[in-house]
Design brief:
This protein has one domain: Aminopeptidase (3-Layer(aba) Sandwich), CATH 3.40.630.30. About 25% of the residues lie in helices and about 30% in strands. Strands 1, 2, 3, 4, 5, 6, 7, 8 and 9 form a nine-stranded mixed β-sheet that branches.
Length: about 180
């Protein structure tokens, strides 16, 4: 049962947010893996804090979303894209529109920064409302076994995935945690 939506402010992370982002992810997922992944991804040369967004309510961070550059590799060519992972909201604020606000803000930011697509491994009933569709419909495959309906792609611009096919290559940090 969801409650009334909560208005929130979305902004890029800043270093003082790091411990709070760790805490949000740990509480939301019930484990430290996502926090460890975010810490590792921040050390990458292609990390862009403009793609690591924080949701605030009354100035307090309560949610986080991260987009990381990835490649979609075919035998002859590689296409750039973004991975949406992880996204977290403190449990007491879940089902109140915070995740929706984070995703919409992240999509807008990725579009503004010139990215053409986003890939997500997530809930098949949640992400399609943002325009995500099974990546397999674009001949894009996960690098591991996942349910087809849970591995999705989103075009950020018209024809942003035209001619794109292959297997997603995640940064090595995704395998390390």
């Amino acid at each position: 049962m969801s409650s009334a939506p909560i208005p929130c402010h979305i902004r890029p992370e800043v270093p003082k947010d790091y411990p709070l982002i760790d805490a949000i992810n740990t509480e939301a997922f019930g484990q430290h893996n996502e926090s460890l992944l975010i810490r590792a991804l921040r050390k990458r040369s292609d990390f862009d804090p403009r793609l690591s967004l924080v949701a605030e309510v009354n100035g307090n961070p309560i949610g986080h979303i991260l987009f990381t550059p990835i490649d979609i590799q075919s035998p002859n060519i590689s296409f750039g894209s973004l991975a949406l992972a992880p996204m977290s909201v403190l449990p007491k604020y879940q089902k109140r529109g915070i995740g929706t606000s984070l995703i919409k803000a992240g999509i807008a930011q990725a579009r503004q920064l010139g990215f053409k697509s986003i890939i997500v491994l997530g809930h098949a009933k949640y992400y399609p409302k943002f325009g995500f569709e099974p990546a397999s419909s674009r001949s894009i495959k996960a690098p591991f076994e996942v349910p087809d309906e849970a591995f999705m792609a989103l075009e950020l611009i018209k024809s942003g995935l035209e001619g794109v096919s292959g297997t997603v290559v995640y940064p090595e940090e995704f395998q390390e945690v």
